[in-house]
Amino acid sequence: MEKKAGKKEIILLIIIFIVILAIWLGYRMMKSDSGNLVRITVDGEEYGVYDLDEEQEIPIEIDGGVTNTLVIRNGEADMIEADCPDQICVNMDAISVENETIVCLPNRIVVEVISSEEEADFDTIAQ
Question: Per residue in 26-50, pLDDT tens?
Answer without folding.
Answer: 877 776 566 789 999 999 999 999 9
